[in-house]
Design a protein that fits this description.
mainly beta
Length: 109
């Protein structure tokens, strides 16, 4: 089956050298419920090769079985180099909703 659709992406990045901080924000809009990314398409056509072993904790098949039908996705990332070689501070957030499903997915780390 051949599915068609459109996706739109807007991205913004900003680096503040005074604080060594990098901000990035991205928004994606999938204009139809059947839109598939290239990775979605490859997985759907090879799904029999992604079967769970009994001892698997995480299975890529779980991700793809539940992730089709994305409608909107927003991501925010903040990365900062800490002074005096103290490492890095990183914060990320993701918000996503889906066609034909109520509720949203939110991940903050």
């Amino acid at each position: 089956m051949f599915l068609m659709g459109k996706a739109y992406q807007v991205a913004w990045n900003k680096y503040l050298p005074q604080s060594a901080t990098h901000f990035s924000l991205a928004a994606y809009r999938y204009s139809s419920r059947d839109y598939r990314t290239f990775n979605d398409h490859v997985w759907a056509n090879n799904r029999d090769n992604y079967r769970r072993d009994d001892d698997d904790i995480y299975d890529i098949a779980d991700y793809y079985e539940n992730d089709f039908g994305r409608k909107n996705t927003f991501t925010l990332n903040i990365n900062q180099t800490l002074p005096m070689g103290g490492g890095y501070f990183t914060a990320s957030a993701l918000w996503r909703d889906y066609w034909g499903r109520s509720g949203t997915e939110r991940i903050i780390s």
